[in-house]
Amino acid sequence: MIREIKNGTLYFDGCNTVDLAEKYNTPLYVVSETEIVRRFDELKDCFVNRYERTRVAYASKAFSTLAMYKLCQREGMCIDVVSGGELFTAISCDFPAQNIEFNGNNKSYEELEMAIDYGVGRIIVDGLTELDMIEEICKTKAKIANVLYRITPGVRSDSHDYIVTGRKDSKFGIPLDEHILYPYIERAISSPCIDFKGFHFHVGSQLHDNSSHLQALDILLHHVTEVKRRFDCEVQELNLGGGFGVTYTDEERKPFSYFLEPMMEKIEGFFAQEGMKRPAIVIEPGRSIVAEAGISLYRVGQIKNIPDLRTYVSVDGGMTDNIRPALYGAKYSAVIAGRADEPAETEVTICGKCCESGDILIKDLLLPKVEQGDILAVFSTGAYGYSMASNYNKNPIPAVVFVKEGRSEVIVKRQTYQDLIKNEVLPERLTVAEQRTR
Ligand code: LLP
After folding, report:
1. What is the value of pTM for the model shown?
2. Ligand 1 pocket check: which of 284, 327, 328 to mutate, most ligand atoms within 8 Å of Cβ?
3. DSSP per-residue letters across 400-423
4. What pLDDT is attached to residue 166?
5. Are 322 and 2 in contact (CB under 8 A)?
6. What average pLDDT does range 319-328 have in this prediction?
7. Is the pLDDT of residue 163 over 70?
8. Which of 171, 293, 320, 380 has CB atoms 3.0–4.6 Å from 395's, for a disulfide?
9. Which helix (H) or strand (E) holds 186?
10. Helix or strand or coil: residue 142?
11. Which atom of ligand 1 lies closest to the CA of 328?
């Protein structure tokens, strides 16, 4: 068990969370290595080791750190990156470039150049001028790029609007208009610098129903047939994206096999029937690898009781370390780390310390009577918490600690105040403390 309560205190991957808060200070991201490895093991059992020519490319936007990339490498996982910054981070710790897939709807020329120089394994083309840039770069460098096309399948998904990506009205993917898609595919197939590998889709995130993946897959398979018919080209690879939902409060997390088994069944059936070799299959889970592997620890500060209305419990972090409640209305659950077994009978609202009324982490949470100085542990914050953190109000970004079977170590140091100003430049003319008179 990753979460345990011993003598009333919450333990996470064997570590006493009150002691972690004491040792590393708060706010603190705590990430369980055991839980991440367990997710990878689940994927190995039901996917990678079960079907030939399959890969997992962890979508590192969910949590991108050197330690995480190294963990992926040790576990034999590929990764997906979506920016020069993520790519640089992975390469900085010697992550093998050929195991990197590069996504993104507006990759810059410089980012593509960097990816081609490093020799990333796949570039997922997600725009109608991207191919020109890739070709130009490859021509000058005498390289060949392995390319997949991200299509917009035009399916509905049941998730927050901001994290639905597969519907027709989306900034992501190449539209399925035959006058746009097929000439663009033909160009890739006939280009000497491009190895056109196949298609990619990503329908959305935090999904608990497999229907949009299955619908998107049907659409994708239709285009596989068309590419064979029109260009006599058999695709070598399909990437089915990520999006598998996790538990934040009471959502039931489905096993990976719930999504993967029916998709693989459909794929194997389709290619057997068409008499084509089944292409390699890649998935890109992000959230489902790291979300539940993370908790956030905060220290309780001011408590404001508005009689007959609401009790605001302020913590020393907020929307700067977890933007998800403010941005998506995301729900979380939490306990008081040192009194995790006490009956939760008081309804409170957990708010952050930013100068925003929207800086609410958890509305109407039941807790035991809270006191200033208590440590609050918020669950399932491992995905898109640290990676979306900001310095709003000049708050330093908290430290990240990896925990494993009772041991803990810092993998990202807490920012200092000095870090907050290290890129700032004070123009000389303003250094003179002279007041303008008018
Ligand atoms: N592949 C592609 C091309 C993606 O765009 C994404 C997520 C993933 C894979 C991974 O999806 P996941 O398995 O994590 O659901 N910041 C938002 C989530 C944005 C997801 C964007 N794309 C949040 O905090 O909910």
Report:
1. 0.97
2. 284
3. EEEEETTEEEEEEPPPPHHHHHTT
4. 67
5. no
6. 98
7. no
8. 320
9. helix 178-190
10. coil
11. 25
